[in-house]
Fold this protein.
Amino acid sequence: MDYLKAFLVGGAICALAQIIYDNTKLTPAHILVAFTVAGAILGGLGVYETLTRFAGAGAIIPVSGFGNAIVTGMLNEVKRLGWEGLFTGAFEITGLGVTTAIVFGSLMAVLFRPRD
């Protein structure tokens, strides 16, 4: 049942992005930023945590989950360190994922050449 919930919620988030893309003049970059900000706002309000508990990876994997992770890290660090957590908290949870993307992206750029 967990797989079904994750599939349905993740699919709904992606389908919503596709509907927005098909019916507006927004670029994929605009939609990416909008979903990241929406995930951050919903995370700050505590709504996204409920969705994450329900859908698991279906809510964490889309880019809105990244926005939620940034805000969650910041809020946790603010509780622990005070105002300094606003500057360090974003890296606490998301640092590993961003570092992995940079390392593997750089590795692929070295190993393969893009075609014209």
